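ok so for the tutorial part 2 we go from a plain amino acid sequence to predicted structure tokens. step 1 is just haveing the sequence, like this:
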Amino acid sequence: MDLDVFVSAHRAEWDRLDALLRRQRKLRGAEVDELVSLYQRTATHLSVIQSSAPDPQLTGRLSQLVARARSAVTGTRRASWRDVTRFFTHGFPAAVYRTRRWWGPTALISTAVAIALGWWIGTHPDVQATIAAPDELRELTRPGGQYETYYSSHPAASFAAQVWTNNAWAAAQCLILGVFFGLPVLWILFQNMLNLGVGFGLMSSAGRLDTFLGLVLPHGLLELTAVFVAAGIGLRLGWTVIDPGPRTRRIALAEEGRAALGVAIGLALVLFISGAIEGFVTPSGLPTWARITIGIAAELAFLTYVYVVGGRAARTGETGDLEAAERSAAVPTAA
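step 2 — the prediction. this is what the tokens look like for a chain of 335 residues:
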């Protein structure tokens, strides 16, 4: 395509659209119809230029023009409580449900890795010696040692807030960094599983595995599930870079990225709940069976929410992306 000829042929339409958008007075009926028609044509022109003869300066100008026109045509929209309700009953659970084939295997493999690391550390004293000195290891694992006092070392509210912040940041990193082919996500996962494996191995070697599980399971089930969901979706985002499927890579990344952002918001609430359990339930005086029961109940509630509510929403076509009216205009172009 000859870009100069194309610009000369359509410059007048773009200038006219710009002039209509700059009008201070209210447009008349005929002018509104003209604005809508010019907006549609300019969106098509932008799509043609992007696919056939990309020019950064021209693309930037037309992108701004199309965005302004779209805002004028569709009007501004304010978020409402209806949007919040729809997000938690449709968007978030559907996005998690439809990516279950990514985070499900991620959870299974990661758990297996953590158990293997724990077994290796727990059965090899020479490996334990590289972690800390014998006296330090005894201080960590003894009754009333650092592993136990860790959960009650700070006021419950501030500890829960700190845990929530750290875990939410880890989940956000998985979702954000997934675009780099998923490689940073694998590293973040390994670090988390290594930390879990170290605690598992050291406490089991001291004959206190039951105590360790009693401290980790109440909050850890829900917390790790949230991390696995974030990691799975991050890996899916990385795979989208490699294989976008029938969509263009730009459109695929935009759709999956918006859904991942929504999941990050939803997981922040999930991690807030697990942080509250870790801050108030884990160090509480409740018997171990009661604390573990609370953790299992929270985990089952989340999985039921995802598979029942999310599955129903996904079957209606919900993907977790923005509604069609809120997305950027995508105009098909002729071959």
